[in-house]
Amino acid sequence: xxxxxxxxxxxxxxxxxxxxxxxxxxxxxxxxxxxxxxxxxxxxxxxxxxxxxxxxxxxxxxxxxxxxxxxxxxxxxxxxxxxxxxxxxxxxxxxxxxxxxxxxxxxxxxxxxxxxxxxxxxxxxxxxxxxxxxxxxxxxxxxxxxxxxxxxxxxxxxxxxxxxxxxxxxxxxxxxxxxxxxxxxxxxxxxxxxxxxxxxxxxxxxxxxxxxxxxxxxxxxxxx
Length: 224
What we know:
This protein has about 220 residues and is of the alpha/beta class. About 40% of the residues lie in helices and about 5% in strands. Helix 1 (about 25-35) runs antiparallel to helix 2 and helix 8 runs parallel beside helix 10 (about 200-205).
């Protein structure tokens, strides 16, 4: 989202560019898997709308692990999926130890998956892909869908958005969490629920959320 030219009367800064991601695939698939497996992952909020699981089945998923081990595996993939939003390290002069290890041990396909935020293949085995696709479509075509540019959440909360952009915000990630949710996970990225983003007062409040660790607020996964 960007205004290419500085036009008279246009309040949007011409050089302010934002990326809005309403259905980040890796995270959406893992949230669907959490519903299928009925994990009690309390640090990740409940969903709204809750997906219809269709013909999804846990029996087709593969290894037979205990529920605690399965939840730990899910948390690991959840943390890895968030790495796609990590800002680059301007002081880095080469790959860190983890990246170097992946470069040395993974083939091209495995490496692409490791850095893409896409969940492990394990979670997709029991998922009804049609049901997952229908849920993503429902999230995209929600009742919140604006009918004009001026009705978009970013336009309705523009002063707060500009203030957040001036502190480094470039990415807004929307997840189907129930109720109010806002987390500035790093200088570039704000995570919000649809309820938060489409209610101007809540979105304005969310845009003022301090960086994680700089103030109170729930995180996508405090164990990451």
